[in-house]
């Protein structure tokens, strides 16, 4: 499929969100698949980004499609945050939630807490989806929520909501390769524990070796010569 140029969103006269996907598709229950790709990214796209918002620590991408087939007032909202992690020494941005609004009053909410990247980078993943075959990065927020009736998939997904420079994506952190602060701290902690364990084992082996040496050590007796004994008697 044709990869369109990124969707650019400005706030207060400055580009603050870049978003791109090779395909954006949704499905409600057993209804037919609704492809929103051209409505979002084509040069004649009809999507309205009114309601999008950017700040230092929050960003909202609001995609308003209007009436699409039998869905009325359809819109998709991506809600992101920017947080400083002391363990990593830098800011990371999270895609916290994805919302589907339809028929004016209904909403389906998905948690997307496994979608994150350093704030100086964009985030890229081959699939960001609610489908199990794509690792289910979008999880219904509650069993009683309308999200359980929806499937949504972004193919070749890329987004950046903070530190956008020159209206271009920064280097991408891919969902399959980068380490999160939690993973990095876990690896460091595991390494420290392994070093402590290795040192403790070394000391135990060393102490056992010393104990065996003490047990096997014998007293060496040197017999005295008769001349030495005679000399001692004469001295007495």
UniProtKB/TrEMBL annotation:
Domain of life: Eukaryota
Domain V-type proton ATPase subunit S1/VOA1 transmembrane positions: 177-214
Swiss-Prot/TrEMBL GO biological process terms: regulation of cellular pH
GO cellular component: bounding membrane of organelle; cytoplasmic vesicle membrane; endomembrane system; proton-transporting V-type ATPase complex
Pfam family, one: Ac45-VOA1_TM
UniProt-recorded Gene Ontology molecular function terms: ATPase activator activity
Transmembrane annotation, as ranges: 178-201
InterPro entries, A to Z: Ac45_acc_su (IPR008388), VAS1/VOA1_TM (IPR046756), VAS1_LD (IPR046755)
Keywords assigned: Membrane, Transmembrane, Transmembrane helix
Localization in the cell: Membrane
Its membrane topology: Single-pass membrane protein
V-type proton ATPase subunit S1 luminal domain: residues covered: 14-162
Keyword Membrane found: yes
Protein family membership: Belongs to the vacuolar ATPase subunit S1 family.
Protein name: ATPase H+ transporting accessory protein 1 like a
Natural source organism: Cyprinus carpio (Common carp)
Lineage of source species: Eukaryota, Metazoa, Chordata, Craniata, Vertebrata
